[in-house]
Amino acid sequence: MSDMPQKPDSQMPVKPMMDTRPMLDPNATGSFDVVEIFRRQLPLIACCTVLGLLMAVIYWANAEKWYESSAKMLVTLKDMRASDKGESSWAADGVQDEILANHMEIVSSRRIIGNALQRVNAEEMPGIKAHTDSKTDAVDYVSEHISLTKGGQGSARDARSLNIAFRHTNPDEALLILQALVAEYESFLDEQVSRIMSEANRLITQAQGKIESDLKSLEEQYVQARQSAPIIYVGNESSNVYLDTFRRLQDELVTVDIERSAVATRLQNVLTSLDQIKQNKGNSLEMLALIDSESLTRLGTFGSFSSAQTQDFQENQATRLKEAETKFGKLIELQAEMSRLNGLFGPNHPTVENLRKNIEIVEGLLKESQAKTQNNPLFEKLTPELLLNAYTGFLRHDLSALDQRKRELLTLAAEAEKNSKSLIEFELKDKMIQAEMTRKQTLYDSIVEQLREMDTAAGLSGYIHEVLEEPQAGEEVWPALNICVAGGMFLGLCLGVLVAICNDQFDNRFRTPSEIDSALGVPVIAQVGKITRSRDKRKKGRMIVDAQAPEAESFRLLRTYLLREVKAGNLRTAMITSSQAKDGKSTILANLGASFAELGLKVLIIDGDMRAPTIHRFLNMPIDRGLSETLQGKTKLDEVIRPTGIEGLSVMTAGSAVRNPAELLQSEVFDQVLEDCKSRFDMVLVDSGPVLLVSDPAIVSQKCDIAMLVVRPAIDTKRKVFESIRRLTSSKSNLRGCILNTYGSSKEFTRDSGYYSSYNYYGYGYGYGYGNRGYGRRVKDNGSAETENGHSLAGSTPAGRK
What we know:
It is a multi-pass membrane protein. This protein is of the alpha/beta class.
């Protein structure tokens, strides 16, 4: 027993360290990485491409040969616009693309093709007969195989030329048919095109006459309309005089409204102020203050003219009137100012005193003027009350005059508006007639231009058609080797890509280690590749790798992953199983035990696969006594634990075959065996049968601290691995992780592991029939080591055999 710390009986079991990532759907297809798919399926894609190339070559060698006969024609429209000068010219742009397109339709029409075939009696040609039936006649066949293009090549691609080509299986027949087609086309142009264009010329000429007649009628209507116009027409400078009058009347109405409003407001203010003065018993000066200066002038003039009696008085009236008006107006202004200042400053204020003196002076002057006019009785009777009444009378008269003026202006404005609207209607009709005349004139000019372009002087001479290249004998154009090869390879490549994608997406195997790690939900804790037999004589016949071998590093990594828990005493028992047989679990278990033994640990390997044991063969040990005898109570534990020849590594073989291995493993005896083994060894490794074939792993995993699943991507499908993990997790086992066996896998696995292998792993014989070993396959218990395929290993020959 080593000096490692022992696990107490009360110690808690190892906690599961399962990856918490969810498992993917086992029915789901792989990720769609085009580059990876092409890399994995490159042989399949290359095979399909080569197959496409081969089929293309076969097609080229056996396909029916086709020949092409071609001809080239120049088609242009003759221009005779210079014929009046006695010279002929060719329009540089006489033929447009539309004209060439029309001629292409003419050549490919059934009429032209049918007449051409009748010329050479093509329906009796053997090649034509071979390609016609009840559904396809000769015309249809020729129409399908005729090719029409325009222009030349290179810098002559815009040339006004027509290229005609016909493909047929007989080169001589192709030449005859193309010659007949060109001849029929030329005949058609001579006979039909000219007639059609002449008819077009007639229709255009007829349209010209009608439009010219309509234009003359419009001109007559326009003249009559101008003659009946309500104004004198002077060209573009004509204007609507009624509209101008209406605008002036509207402006004058606005002025009258403003004046009337001012007079009415003044009259209302005077009447209101006069009532207030009377109620307040004001003096005459306050009444005179209501009269504005302009009205005072009018009142003075009125008084002077009313008092005139003699001729002498009338002669001096202007001078006296001017003088009286000045003095009287000055007096009224001073009195009004005195009334205002007296109210503001009082009667004793110096300013008021000065103003009173000025008033006295003006009154004195006014009395002198009155003395000179003693003969005027009316002047003596003028009082402030009379002047104010006369002033209000003037205002009322002005208001009445303004109202009368407004009524007159409204009548004139209504008449001007009516006349203006009638004139606007005439102007609109005039513009409509002018627009119609413009449209007719434009259309007339367009028709005249068309007639000029159609060469009416010569009555339409037609098209110029010249054969630039006579029909040539048919040349072989199909099958073309380069096109067939390129097409075959392309189709093969497309087919290969399609098949590769489908094959890759529906492949139920794991393709990369990262895919396994992400899909299973449990970590990949180790990856084992090539296994080479040890050259150590002590390990002769055993599948134990040398410590110096590169592949031993994989087991060291796995050992390192578990070592910390082993040294801590938390990990004492571990079960290794696989999804199915031939996954290499026993080989991995044996080498893992040897790797732990290298550290000086005491390791026991228990072959718990009592249905198809293999550990004894890997270690070249006898199987006569083992686990089955111990569980049945036939032998003691010390009798079945045997040394392997490797220091620190012991083994307990499966023992003889039994009918009820699951019941034995489920018993408490097996629990006691494990406890006894843990007390004697630092590490106990238990080999169990495949998860999908037997129930033993589900039982043993519950009794061990951890369980590890060996996955061999070369033969284990996703569905099988998912089901194995599901069964182990359902049995409450502590599934620590997966160990990849990359033997026979793709380069993605071997490249990651760093090893390439050709080693054959050992197999099993699981089944449902009972036999000596393997349930259906007898295995001789001769202590020999056999591979999974039944081959003996070198160096494992039993005693007495060579």
